[in-house]
Amino acid sequence: MKVYIDPAADMLYASFYIKGLEEVFGKRNIGYSAQYFKNFVHNNHFFAFVLVDANKTMKKLVVDFTDAALIDEKALDWADVYGKVNYDGQYKSEKISVIGPSFGINIYSAMTTAVLAVSNFLKAYPRIPDKRRFLSDYKSQFRRPQLQEYNKRKNNGAYIFFMASLWKNEKQTNQFRANFIRACRANPKIKFEGGFAPRTKRDLSGFEALTTPARVKMNYYMSQILQSILVFNTPAVKDCHGWKLGEYLCMGTVILSTPLKRQLPKPLLDGEHVIYTDGSESDITKKVNTLLKNDSLREKLENNAAEYYQKYLQPKQAIRNLLANAIGDFDKCKV
To answer: Residues 226-243: what's their mean pLDDT?
Structure first.
């Protein structure tokens, strides 16, 4: 079985799934070819790939990672299976497979990143409307952590680190995050660090007291999140599963979350995988205090979050779930 990826793919967002393809099929069986994807352009909505077996039988797959619940009908018509991260259940099609959250990861060395950026740019040049953005995706992929970095949890007592963006059009997301920051800062049991990352244009008022002086580097963000006794999640842009949810589940950490707005491969259950809050400052304070004093509950949540990620979300499992829909019982397929 050979895998051919659209060279116009958004490398930052596709990296998680390319990692899964490498784990399932092996790097030597994966290549980039424009042959099958002439009707698609580089965008931040989806990426496409095909599977071609020894008999030249082809299966066409799409992974849609856009924040919106929108389905790209051209891609859906083309695909045999359409994997959707942020599915709300409104668009009905047997092709759609709910795959849950992911996040950008580093999958290529500096040299390989540079070589692929140039070669894929040349292969897909007529289909790249924003040349600068296309190349920037490769640079951003290289700057992301490798997947194994998410497994280095360290216990640092009642320490919580939280750093999040302010969004211009997501008032509820901003408010829930502000409530969490206030609740943690006001809690004498917690050593809290963080706040909102400053916006480049400083064009959103009302959160100045909760905003940090400067953004932090990715390696510092990772090291501090991995030390946190718990983390906070809320649906982000257009009610999407933000990268934070996928990252937190990968880390196997205690997750306090407002209710999710998009479907998952299987629900995250309250008290089993996560603790849900209504997002008010008072309820966040109550739930945080419960978690701080209940070691056994935290341990259960950590174990179940990690198990959920391994079973449904890790790169190779996300790919295997798509393949099961594309070619039946994947375990019986020769790859």
So the answer is: 96
| pTM of the shown model | 0.94
Q: What are the structural domains, with CATH classification, of the chain?
A: 2-147+315-332 (no CATH), 149-313 (3.40.50.2000)
Instruction: Give whole-number Cα distances, 233 to 106, 248, 260, 264, in Å.
Output: 23, 9, 9, 15
Give yes or no for a contact between 227 and 155, defined as CB atoms under 8 angstroms apart: yes
The one-letter amino acid at 43:
N
Amino acid at 212: T
What would the two tokens of residue 308 be? 């959920």
Nearest residue to 35 (alpha-carbon basis) of 2, 66, 12 = 2
How far apart (Å, rounded) are the C-alpha atoms in residues 176 and 162? 13
Expressed in percent and rounded to 5, the helix, strand and coil fractions of the chain are 45, 15, 40
Query: Mean of the pLDDT values across residues 148-164?
Result: 92
Per-residue confidence (pLDDT) for residue 328, from 0 to 100: 65
Among 198, 210, 298, smallest CA distance to 256 is for: 298
Written as one letter, the residue type at 189 is: K
Distance CA 236, CA 309 (A): 20
SS3 319: helix
CB 48 within 8 A of CB 62: yes
